[in-house]
Specification:
Helix content: 40-55%
Strand order of the largest sheet: 2-1-3-4-8-9
Largest sheet: 6 strands, parallel
CATH superfamily of the domain at 3-106 and 175-234: Alpha/Beta hydrolase fold, catalytic domain
Oligomer: single chain
Distance between the termini: 7 Å
Radius of gyration: 16 Å
CATH class of the domain at 3-106 and 175-234: Alpha Beta
Order of helices and strands: EHEHEHEHHEEHHEHHEHHEHH
Number of helices: 13
């Protein structure tokens, strides 16, 4: 039995992994899909102090309090920032890092540094709501923005996607032992359309991965291709 911890990206919650988690559990594995503070069913905890460091602490807390070891730690999109920080704080508990169409930050970088163009779009939509700077894309655009095209899935997601604190995207990641993080086995799973647009840095990161796989689908692969994604994750068990 393997242990998977599935970390969602911006605007999402643990709910987005529902079908993948069910498939992994049916194959006999232990699965945790925590929701980061201020999002999903934990949106009532949203406040000015919610940032990248808090989200890293959320996941480290799951590893420690559930006493999880040999974890296959998956991060989607912004979740790549989170799992990199988690690997720095709890490397001894991690078997494999999986970057799911995700950010690959280096020490001292924010998501705004790593994904410059899309973060510029996000910054334009930031509004101050109840004392918190939030990225507030019009909700009618959001599922489509994440590459979801099925009307039923769009309706399901639209009821759950929400604003995300800008501080999570702007805060720089500080790693205490970056070499130790880089030594962990790493798998990259990417959406084919995005791979074709990668710059030289991102292409180099693919070459450095222990495994680099593609799925021909939109960015929210856990929603659009849960079976294919699950089969790839099972190969790591």
């Amino acid at each position: 039995m393997a242990t998977y911890v599935l970390v969602h990206g911006g605007h999402h919650g643990g709910w987005c992994y529902r079908r993948v988690a069910r498939l992994l559990r049916s194959a006999g594995h232990e699965v945790h899909s925590p929701t980061l503070t201020g999002l999903g069913e934990r949106r009532h905890l949203l406040g000015p102090k919610v940032d990248l460091e808090m989200h890293i602490a959320d996941v480290v807390g799951v590893l420690e309090f559930e006493d999880l070891r040999d974890v296959i730690l998956v991060g989607h999109s912004y979740g790549g920032m989170v799992i990199t920080g988690v690997a720095d704080r709890a490397a001894e508990r991690i078997k494999e890092l999986v970057y799911l169409d995700a950010a690959h930050p280096r020490n001292g970088e924010s998501l705004a540094d790593v994904a410059v163009e899309i973060m510029a779009v996000c910054k334009e939509s930031v509004r101050l709501i109840d004392g918190v700077e939030l990225v507030t894309w019009p909700e009618t655009r959001m599922p489509e923005f994440f590459g979801v095209t099925d009307p039923a899935e769009i309706a399901w997601m639209r009821a759950r996607l929400q604003e995300h604190p800008w501080s999570c995207y702007a805060q720089k990641l500080h790693l205490k032992n970056e070499p130790a993080v880089r030594r962990l086995p790493r798998t990259d799973i990417n959406c084919s359309a995005r791979v074709r647009e990668y710059d030289e840095r991102r292409k180099a990161e693919l070459r450095e991965a222990d495994r680099a796989w593609e799925i021909d689908t939109g960015h929210d692969v856990m929603v659009t291709e849960p079976e294919k994604l699950t089969q790839m994750l099972l190969r790591l068990a």
